[in-house]
Design brief:
130 residues; mainly alpha; 2 domains; 3 helices; Galactose-1-phosphate uridylyltransferase
């Protein structure tokens, strides 16, 4: 509403609503910034982006060959090396439902935290229908 008032403070209701377009540009801007911060923005077009290449490296996460001992699986206290994932207190993800599913165009398909669309479709084809 503030942008409408700044555009036309006499008749802000006559200014067209461009919120959807603004959010699309913000989405693309965040994708470009993520590519720049990960260094992928500077790859040439003949080098494919690796899976998970946009996700930052987590030095605290236990990763074999990087920050775990070679005999970590033989440790009687191997629970110490278990990866911990947390969720929010409400255990709800209603805010993640897409308002406009037709606008869901992957800018980085499988390059960050989520699996790519092709891999997901392949997985769905393997599992039985519930």
């Amino acid at each position: 509403m503030k942008l409408k008032w700044l555009t036309n403070n006499q008749f802000p209701n006559l200014v067209p609503d461009r919120y959807h377009e603004l959010m699309r540009v913000v989405w693309e801007w965040r994708n470009l910034r993520a590519r720049q911060h990960s260094g992928i923005a500077y790859l040439s077009s003949d080098n494919p982006i690796p899976k998970g290449g946009l996700a930052p490296f987590c030095p605290a996460c236990p990763q074999p060959g990087i920050n775990l001992l070679t005999d970590w699986q033989d440790d009687p206290l191997k629970w110490k090396y278990m990866r911990t994932l947390l969720g929010d207190g409400n255990f709800k993800q209603e805010h993640l439902k897409m308002k406009y599913p037709k606008d869901d165009i992957p800018l980085s398909d499988g390059h960050a935290y989520m699996v790519g669309k092709a891999g997901f479709e392949e997985y769905l084809a393997k599992i039985p229908e519930a």
